[in-house]
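Input sequence (254 aa), recorded before submission:
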Amino acid sequence: MTALRYYIDLIEVLTLKEIKVRYKNNIFGYFWSILHPLSLALVFYFAFKFIMKFQIENFAYFLICGLFPWQWFSNSVLAGSTSLLANATLIKKVNFPKFFIPLATVLNDAFHFLASLPVILFFGFLFNKFHFLVLFSFLPLQLLAQFIITYGLVLFLAPINLFFRDLERLIQIGLTILFYLTPIIYDVSFIPPNLKVFFYLNPLFGLIENWRLIFIEGSFNWFYFELSLLEGILIFFFGFKVFKKLSPRFAEVL
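Predicted structure, token format:
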């Protein structure tokens, strides 16, 4: 129990450190975490609603429901992939489970996502899409699935980035590609039926769709959840295996 308490306290300290670093010398603090997805929603709304004439009901809210979960994922992957480098001094001087460092990064962005829920609910109220009971019934499942997917990918990328520093730029390109392969700015109905099976290979496909179903329709798709959870578990175990194999060399590389 003493060891468990120590590890919980350590994770808490590392996570709080990440939060403080993000808001250091930052006047507006929390508002920046919601301004980015809202500004993207505004740009996409103008481009696709008024120029390309997308016929999607409540398109502004449709975008918001996809962009906020995406922000958690993309921010965690970008920051998590460099988290070991950013904490080089701590890794070399203190003996502790190194996978706590990327864990703190993912938890930091999870905290910001939870803090943004009132904003999503506010827009849901404006668009008459307020499904409070459904949201909080399935919120733990969605958080679990997204956490496993995100943390698993970060566990894989963080150690690889120590040995191949150019990976950071490839990650940015990969996230851009993944963004457009995930139904965030377009509806699933736009995907040709013969190509949908390939979209199922994207673990964010079912995840984002379920977030949108919860926020907009007040429903939950168990197939999407099981698909994203299964793919997330596979990513997590592969990422953890890579992390564990490379961790003995962290100090010498740093």
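Checked by second reader. The longest helix spans residues 132-163.
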